[in-house]
């Protein structure tokens, strides 16, 4: 089911003008894939099945970490935490939830936003002693 969410997110990115189709950061042997977009891009049934609030004022952040040193680039379970700041420096702590479906592992958090608002994200990602990094990116959100 979460692969359906990922498919919707990837297809959505193909049609969103200001977003790169592939958002990833390579750190050593790990690829960190990330996307942030409005929760309204999810269908009501998918949002409900994963406990994601679907609203024109809530964005979702989806992060996965793949080990590129192993055949098939399997996902790895990580410790993840983060904050989001808007341009007025209002801080929002991101509460990530791990979602596993088959071999896939995703980390999803929700973030409130206002129309035409740019949000800066800082996400700390740790995988034992093999990976300890910070992912920084920004995303502009629009109310539909």
Automatic annotation (TrEMBL):
Keywords from the named record: Signal
InterPro entries: DUF4426
Higher taxonomy: Bacteria, Pseudomonadati, Pseudomonadota, Gammaproteobacteria, Alteromonadales
Pfam families with a match to the protein in the record: DUF4426 (PF14467)
Domain DUF4426: 24-144
Signal peptide: 1-21
Domain of life: Bacteria
Name the record gives this protein: DUF4426 domain-containing protein
Coiled coil: none
